[in-house]
Design brief:
Layout lengths: L14 E3 L19 E10 L3 H10 L1 H7 L3 E10 L4 E10 L2 H8 L6 E3 L3 H4 E4 L4 E4 L26
Antiparallel strand pairs: 1-5, 2-4, 2-6, 2-7, 3-4
Protein name: ABM domain-containing protein
Organism: Cellulomonas alba
Length: about 160
């Protein structure tokens, strides 16, 4: 399958692969309401490539997440499996689905890939999951505040 590029391509970005070119395929329509959203993607690499893949993602996808307005956080997770393979998951927290569009394009359900991904990925998901965040506890300190707060029932904290 050859990579598809989007019209507003970012230099160095290969584009997105996916089963459908229809914008929003597989995603229910959600208004751009400011509801925080968690974006999650999975791929698999050779365990021996963990360190170099992490460095690569820091230069590409994770950096692009963090540089996109509306991104609140990004993380890379690993899980070693049998057979010398490691599951990789990227998660990112966004202020809204509208903010994700600035990173991913109109079809926010399509995964975004970069030029050297084929070097590392032995398997990949071409679609990402988006989950509405009903509650999140912000970390302490002004630099860690994401604007997310625990929903209240009108009672003061005990």
């Amino acid at each position: 399958m050859s990579p598809a590029t989007r019209p507003d391509d970012v230099p160095g970005r290969v584009g997105r692969l996916g089963p459908s070119a229809r914008p929003g395929a597989g995603e229910r329509h959600h208004p751009a309401s400011g509801v925080p959203v968690l974006r999650s993607w999975r791929g698999w690499i050779r365990t021996e490539d963990r360190d170099s893949y992490r460095a690569y993602l820091e230069r590409t996808g994770l950096r692009e997440y963090r540089e996109t307005p509306g991104n609140l956080a990004a993380a890379l997770l690993y899980r070693d499996l049998d057979g010398g393979r490691t599951e990789v998951r990227t998660i990112s927290l966004w202020s809204s689905r509208a903010d994700i569009t600035a990173f991913a394009g109109e079809d926010i359900g399509a995964a975004v890939f970069y030029p050297e991904d084929d070097r590392y990925l032995v398997q990949r998901e071409t679609r990402v999951a988006h989950l509405d965040v009903a509650w999140a506890e912000p970390a302490a300190g002004p630099e860690a505040s994401s604007g997310l707060a625990r929903p209240t029932d009108g009672r003061p904290d005990a």
